[in-house]
Description:
One of its GO terms (molecular function) is 23S rRNA (adenine(2030)-N(6))-methyltransferase activity. This is DNA (Exogenous) processing protein. This protein is mainly α. The protein has a single domain (about 5-110), classed as Rossmann fold (3-Layer(aba) Sandwich), CATH 3.40.50.150. Helix content is about 35%, strand content about 5%. The protein has a two-stranded antiparallel ribbon with strand order 1-2.
Amino acid sequence: MLSYRHSFHAGNHADVLKHTVQSLIIESLKEKDKPFLYLDTHAGAGRYQLGSEHAERTGEYLEGIARIWQQDDLPAELEAYINVVKHFNRSGQLRYYPRFAIDCSPATARTRQPATDRTAPERLPVAAF
């Protein structure tokens, strides 16, 4: 049986692309005056430590989030995505990658949603590796 551990791949180029597209879709849906449901059926751990043995072994994040982390000339389309990644790295050093780059935690979701919206987040443990 094949096994997959996202901690080896978190923050790689595919995550950057996927989470950027997800953030653009969600931001677009939030502009409408209609409710929507977002259900992530394949969410992983709450956040990934980019200095972990797994992340360092592959180094995939170096060709993904690390390449755009502190660039000043990012396209506007990346703003919402990178702001949430920065929320998880308040020290200014890239140490963590969230499981989902937009509204990725109950706390973040509640601060960004209109008063008329409801959430039903499931609390997930932070990755221990």
